Amino acid sequence: MNLEQLQSIRRDLHQIPELGFQEKKTQQYLLEYLHRIKNEKMEIQTWKTGVLVKITGRNAEETIAYRADIDALPITEETNYSFESQHKGNMHACGHDFHMTIALGALTRLAENPPHNNVVFIFQPAEENPGGALPMLQSEELKAWWPDRIFALHIAPEYPVGTIASRSGLLFANTSELFMDFKGKGGHAAYPHTAKDMVVAASSFNVQAQHIVARTVDPLDSAVLTVGKMTAGFVQNGIAENARLEGTMRAFKAETMSGMKQNVEGLAKAIELAYECTVSIDYGSNYYQVFNHEQFMEPFQQIVEKRGFKYVDCPPAMTGEDFGYMLRDIPGFMFWLGVDSPYGLHHSQLQPKEEALEVGVQVVEATIREL
Ligand SMILES: CC(=O)N[C@@H](CCC[C@H](N)C(=O)O)C(=O)O
Known about the structure:
By secondary structure, this protein is an alpha+beta fold. It has helices at residues 3-14, 24-37, 96-112, 133-137, 140-144, 198-216, 254-275, 297-306, 323-329, 355-370, and strands spanning 42-47, 50-55, 63-69, 118-124, 149-156, 163-166, 169-172, 174-183, 187-188, 223-232, 238-239, 242-251, 278-282, 286-287, 290-292, 310-313, 332-338. Helix 3 (96-112) links the parallel strand 3 and strand 4. The longest helix has 22 residues, at 254-275. The chain is elongated, with a radius of gyration of 23 Å.
């Protein structure tokens, strides 16, 4: 498969972004492609909206797996691509269209010329939300094809095409979503003393919550508390009875995350008292840290450099990934693939360079054959 074919697949997938566990068209697209190239070495099965493919190795001693996530984000695309999202309000703004295309490219080459060992390709739903990796790990389908080793990639807008970045040990943080509902008393804007204003209560929570990272987390440790969405009220001259904050917390250490949750709960109680309201907290999905197993990193670096690409030993990031659960249970690693976009992950104008597709396919194929 050449770059033109990879681009064509990526552009098809880019137009049909679907949220976690709703990836029906994406699954259909993957299955149609896989059945077109299917041969006697390949087996295909589905799990919810995901797909698993096994290629039997020539002389298999073990099984290596490669995981690609397939879901998209509720972001309205602003790239002006001729092939922009046909699902208004959803976008492949985290590069999962790239991840799937690279998997299909490597799979096609390996199906034509099978590797020594068995390989399982995992097209996993719901990475962004609510998390597909953990239930997939517990599924009969994956248990039947349980791999000995596993790896995955994520596109990296900040690195040039041809650069691969990773590290031994911690790569991505522990994460917890944060959903908070504030309930007070609505009223007329001109009579604030008769109401309990949840715009003020939720704003106050968000401003004060910034002290949690700044003043309760050891400066030599690292954590994040970000509210990405805030909704409240109905009208400009009314007082909002309800407000909702939606965010995420990140920490490199699990105990730091527990401490932050205690502080969030303490502050919520203080807001209840101060603003005479009720506050409920839901932590949504929590992802386990991505921790790369040391034994793979040196051989992987050699595989990358042997193909003429640049390997960078990078610092850990505050991104999260439910692939962390897979690495908790199966030895392996994850790496960043440079795609050189002026706009970052989760941005409505993310524009990864498509030349990186070929780099990804070469590295994934070579890793499966040589690691
Ligand atoms: C690589 C990446 O961007 N992953 C997402 C994972 C989201 C986890 C969860 N929905 C949360 O927001 O905590 C990320 O935002 O890092």
